[in-house]
Amino acid sequence: MKQVASLPSSIMSSEKAIADIGFEYLLGKTNVFQGTAWHKRILKDEIFDSSKFKPSFLPSLRAELSKAMENEIKNLATPGKSSTLIPDLFGFVRRIVLRTMFNKLIGLSLNDDDENVLLDDIMCFQDIVEDATATAAVMAGFIARPFVLRPVERRRKSIEKIIARHIEKGWSNNSLKGQWGPWLRIFNESRTSSEEAATLVVGLMFAAHKNPAIGATQSFCYLLSEGSRSDIDRARNEAKHLMQSTSFSTSDIVEARTLRQYVLETVRMTSHSIGALRKACKEVILVDSSQREYRIRQGETVAISHITTHRNNSIWKDGEKFDAHREEWASVADTDDISVPIDNYKMTAFSHGTNKCPGERLAIALMEIMLALLIDKNVQINGGVPPISFERATLAQRARRISATVLTEKVSSS
After folding, report:
1. What share of the chain is helix, strand, coil (3-state, %, to 5)?
2. Residue spans of alpha helices (H) in 246-302
3. CB atoms within 10 A of CB 408
């Protein structure tokens, strides 16, 4: 694994592998071949200061998540009722995180109706991409392209046109300049066209919202189904602190031990089976510890599975068992570093080598704050937590839709 992941892209290319499974149609060539470099640069320059978040980022991220959750609860609330039914908890959290990422990172200042329509379009598109990826993988290319990939490509381009129009409106209105998110501002300063910026926004929303949202919801499910009474009590106290801390920083997230342990163990248990992909640009010969040779021919694709590593009993003690109190999660070497605290060839969810995920720290922060929000708002799952399911192509979800209830202030019917 380490040999494959460490080879440069001129030998083992992740971009070409992703393009080959259909993403050059589904997300566009700009995202496949340029998107990661764009997002990595903006994260480094605008969000992080070395291994830490810049001081203002986490408090504003927490505020945006809280605001987005209130908006979603309000949209679901029934006038006169003191509780609100959440018919699909995973969808509810996905929408909160998507709204937050869109407003925090892009900052287009849309009116409520335009924003809701666009969020619906993006979420629907991302689910279609997931289905199309799985469908195209078992079809010959000459069938998959016209019947699966091209229709989704047309759907993406129609969404990009809508986003491009909103971007142009935002750029033309100087009074909104102070509300631009870092991505919108950097696109403007670099004279990126609204069309290319819209393509990159679609890719960013695909990468930045779905898996962290699912991971946060799964962490909540695992806490309720696997956590002891003392775990739940500690998590509740940590959630209260995270949501109320007036000097909210990276160290607060790292030191919320119970929340962090449940998030990290959830990611280990739910990362999907097909992880990092690499396509051989030339023939490669790998040698294992027993000096056996493995030949990868030019044009062949290698898939590095997360789940086979994460559940391997020779790598993890009782790898198939959920255990938030593993020794791997117990120690905190650096309270300023939110990253996964162990070797990324043992915990592979955020990839490794030359293609390690640049958004790892943001994703962990998102999951932990969102988990804290669900706990702090006293969200209650209806009917128990169903078993885990790997039917979807993204992070594992659950065997059936989960509904939940949250207590709210009574909404006036007037």
Report:
1. 60, 10, 30
2. 250-255, 257-270
3. 17
Query: pLDDT digits over 261-271, tens only?
Result: 999 999 999 88
Find, among 60, 50, 82, the residue nearest to 378 by Cα.
82
Q: Count the Cβ atoms, other than its own, within 10 Å of residue 332.
A: 13
CA dist 170 to 107, 164, 184, 257, Å? 9, 10, 9, 41
Q: How does residue 4 score in pLDDT terms, banded at 50, 70 and 90?
A: confident
Q: Which residues pair with 173 in a beta bridge?
A: none
Identify the H or E element spanning 361: helix 360-376
Q: Is 367 exposed, middle or buried (0-12, 13-18, 19+ CB in 10 A)?
A: buried
The answer on pLDDT for 200 being more than 90 is: yes
How confident is the model over 33-74, as pLDDT tens digits?
999 999 999 999 999 987 789 999 999 999 999 999 999 999
Per-residue model confidence (pLDDT) at position 351:
80
Please compute the mean of the pLDDT values over residues 127-140 and round it to a whole number: 89
Flag whether pLDDT at 395 surpasses 70. Answer: no
Question: Which residues lie closer than 8 Å to 229 by C-beta, 6 or more apart?
Answer: none
Burial of 173 (0-12, 13-18, 19+ CB in 10 A): exposed
CA-nearest of 123, 115, 114 to 68 is 115
Confidence class for position 107, pLDDT limits 50, 70, 90: very high
Nearest to 278 by CA among 9, 3, 2: 9
Pairing of strands 83-86, 301-304: unpaired
CA-to-CA dists, residue 278 to 22, 41, 283, 300, angstroms: 14, 22, 13, 8
* CA end-to-end span of the chain: 61
Residues 6+ apart with CB under 8 A from 39: 200, 203, 204, 207, 358, 359
